[in-house]
Design brief:
The chain has 307 residues and is of the alpha/beta class. It folds into 3 domains: 82 residues, Arc Repressor Mutant, subunit A; 98 residues, D-Maltodextrin-Binding Protein, domain 2 (3-Layer(aba) Sandwich); 106 residues, D-Maltodextrin-Binding Protein, domain 2 (3-Layer(aba) Sandwich), CATH 3.40.190. α1 crosses α2, α5 packs across α12 and α10 packs parallel to α11.
């Protein structure tokens, strides 16, 4: 490829298509019309000698060549942006941009209602998007630049990722008020469920990928015990609704449980094992350490979740 014929704007179009997987949304992201994005893509295809994106239904699916170029192009644009722009300051009152966050419904429930209220008051033209996803997706989406911030429990992170502690959380057991087996055993809300009873009662767990082993199960295994899992759900809210049905009990983060227990008619109990506190926090790519807009977003998130 002749680098002299490469227009920097073509790289911006390519990067937007990698993020959005749509000609229309890519144009909206960088302020170009759909025909202009299509024309730029055709120029890129000619320069690179590859289709780069192939239409599959309503989506533009990147080819292996595009996937190989994606991270390098994103990093190159970041470097150019840092050279020619001053991102150390940020004026939310006039800013027009989108922030994308990733995490479970645990975090979206705790964070987004208050965060959106605060952001709207200061930055009326900023769009917040919270996407559903677990810690396993974090390195990929942060590296690609498709996500600005992820919220998760402790995970191993690459050296290019940054972490900020937000709060401690632990798991508690939820059951429908007056659950017969717990009532018969004389277990009151706030007390620990005895190990034998805990293992015998049918339970629902939160599992985004259908896996049946959690920190609780590891703690049980260390004691030579196993609980009775009869249902998995991908979200904690769905888990709580199942528990409210009365046929299962389930474990959920204490802060989430406090928000949902009263409205769903749930009692909360202590776990017999696996109830240790965990450090919850936010993760981001270090290339945004000095970015004023990103610092502003992180401060808003911290203020809400540390409250």
């Amino acid at each position: 490829m002749n680098i002299a014929s490469l227009d920097l704007n073509l790289l911006r179009v390519f990067d937007a298509l990698m993020v959005e997987r749509s000609v229309t949304r890519a144009g909206e992201r960088i302020g170009l019309s759909q025909p202009a994005v299509s024309a730029a893509l055709n120029r890129l295809r000619h320069l690179v000698g590859d289709q780069l994106f192939v239409r599959e239904g309503n989506a533009m699916v990147p080819t292996p060549r595009a996937l190989a170029l994606g991270i390098a192009v994103r990093e190159a644009l970041d470097r150019i942006d840092q050279v020619f722009s001053d991102h150390s300051t940020f004026d939310p009152s006039i800013a027009r941009r989108t922030f994308r966050l990733l995490g479970s419904d645990y975090f979206s429930t705790m964070l987004m209602p208050d965060l959106s209220r605060r952001v709207l008051a200061e930055a009326p033209n900023v769009l917040l998007q919270f996407l559903d996803g677990g810690p396993r997706a974090m390195p990929h989406v942060l590296s690609e630049g498709t996500i600005d911030l992820t919220l998760a429990p402790p995970v191993d992170i690459p050296e290019w990722a940054a972490f900020q502690f937000l709060f401690k959380s632990r798991l508690v057991v939820a059951a429908k008020k007056g659950q017969p087996d717990l009532a018969k055993a004389g277990i009151k809300a706030g007390e620990a469920v005895p190990l034998d009873l805990f293992c015998s009662l049918p339970q629902v767990i939160c599992s985004t990928d259908g896996g049946l082993s959690t920190a609780i199960d590891s703690a049980l295994h260390a004691r030579g015990r196993k609980r009775r899992i009869v249902l998995t759900m991908p979200h904690f809210h769905a888990l709580a609704l199942a528990v409210a049905g009365g046929h299962v009990m389930g474990s959920m983060p204490s802060q989430f449980a406090a928000i949902t227990a009263e409205s769903l008619g749930l009692d909360l109990f202590e776990l017999p094992v696996g109830g240790d506190e965990l450090d919850m926090g936010m993760y981001w790519h270090r290339r945004y350490d000095g970015d004023g807009a990103h610092r502003w977003l992180r401060e808003k998130v911290r203020t809400v979740l540390e409250a």
